[in-house]
Amino acid sequence: MNGGNMKFKSFTYAMLFISLLFTCAMFPDTASAITYTISGTVTFSGSGLKDVTMTLSGDASAATTTSNSGVYSFSALSNGNYTVTPSKTGYTFDPPSINVTVHNAPQTGVDFTANRATYSISGSVIGDVQEGVTITLSVSGVSILTTITDVFGSYSFTGLTNGFYTVTPSKFGYAFNPPSSMVPIFNGDPPDVNFTSSLVTSSISGTVSGDVKEGVTITLSGDASLTTTTNALGSYNFSGLINGTYIITPSKTGYAFTPPSRNVTLSGVNQTGQDFVATVAGIYSISGIVTLSGAGLSNVTMTLSGTASKTTATDSSGNYSFTGLINGNYTITPSKPSYAFTPPSLSVDIQDVSVVGKDFTASSTAIYSISGKVTGDIQEGVTITLSVTPSNVTTTDSSGNYSFTGLTNGDYLVTPTKIGYTFSPLFASVSIRNNSQTNINFTASVEGTYFISGTVTLNGSGLSGVTMTLSGDASQTKQTDSDGYYSFSGLSNGTFTITPSKTGYSFNPASRSIDIAGSSVTGADFTASQLPTYSIAGTVALGSGNPLTGVTITLSGDASLTTTTNASGNYSFTDLSNGTYTITPSKSSYAFTPPSTTVTIIDASVSGIEFIASEACATWRDVIAAYNEYVAGSKTWLDVISTYKQYVTQPCP
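Predicted structure:
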């Protein structure tokens, strides 16, 4: 029976071999004469250049394009002489072509270097101005280059590649025709792009109204100097002005003008409505002082209404003055945020003499607050007393918070009390000077016990979430709050060590040794610094040296991450701390050497962690197995042929 099976298997394998020979005869592409390949890479600025047309001529003609990595290959070539020529719009190549002889071996490393083909845009500016015109070159609305025209109005941009550009001239005070020009470059320098410049002029005009209109002298100064006078309607006009900055000043004996002058900037647009109001010039004044608690109060807005309307502000000594007033009835009103004034306003009559001593007294109306927190052995229900007249009392909430509101500027004393507890500090002196006072904090301890407290800061601000470990004669663990504050309470006399910790941070000092001897200890502070982070990087390539994209790279150990290689075969992991990591590559149908690598980070990034990938090979045993699966119905005949072709082209060593 066994002999019969052996004969059957031998017959089956013989039939398989005959079928393979028949298939190869019927389908020449599965078994043909030995052929070879010509391959290489096209690079630009050190990286592969894709979509380059590669033309093969000579004993065979073919064309292909480079891959994303700049790699190309011509296959199924017989022995012979060939020429490989690259081409791509906008590029030149070094060398322009390469002659290749194929003789019983594939030809690799038939490489080319690509360079951008560059061109220039030139032209000139004529007209009212030639030299010193700014020429801007932009692409899609984004400026990429600028230059200045020379004494002859000429300009040029060089080193440009194919594309669409916009050329725009500009110079203050000038217009250009055309305002800009769209210029396409396609494998050659475009015609000259020229512009014509013209001087831009405009005008300034306005009206004088009020006690006088006609005959007011209007003086123009600044980038030009001119004078004119208003007509019967009070109108004036300055024309033919170039772009620039000017000052317009009205004048006429016996009159004052509001405003006294106007600053006007011309930028190619006429400026109208530069108006003034004339009033008969006054010869009297009203003055006084505003005081707060006996001292002058500055920056109080003083408003004059009635026969004339004006505003001014008190100086650093609280003094104010309105001048140039004529006889009449006036009202003076002071104002400043957070202040009230006595009297609220004053009425003043001027009758041929100036008026002095129109004084006001200010008082603060601002409302402020004092707030804080009690921590330690108790938070809720602590009585907080504020020393004012009459005294103000509140109690802390469940989180130890308290607050006094409705306070004005002054000096206060804040005192916490609760039977059976002591507090540090015993009280706090607080001064309010135009702002509320926060973080007036206290630490509570059961009478007869003590506490240790302090703050952890990062760059001067409290750092929250730091684990504070107390060891020694007692063991406790606390977390710093949002202000970086911590406290260990209920402690007896003894020696203790406090150690802060938080991932990604170091602390100075690393720990503190503290002795409690009859009193609590405050100010056990620490300063945090954020630890640096590092990276691991490398490359995955085939045995030919070509990069392999899409490889899954897994990081394990002191951190767990995954990434994939890019088109250049590169990968990287960032934001890593000191530690030991394992890097493992994986991709279907590929094996890697080494299978994984262990990397230790010690205060520096690590690069150059490389892997070599190889495609799977086939043996005659694989062909037999594929045939058996075909007989069983789990594979097709094409699968068998594919395995056989892999055995022929990629046999396992």
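Summary: The chain has a mean pLDDT of 90.
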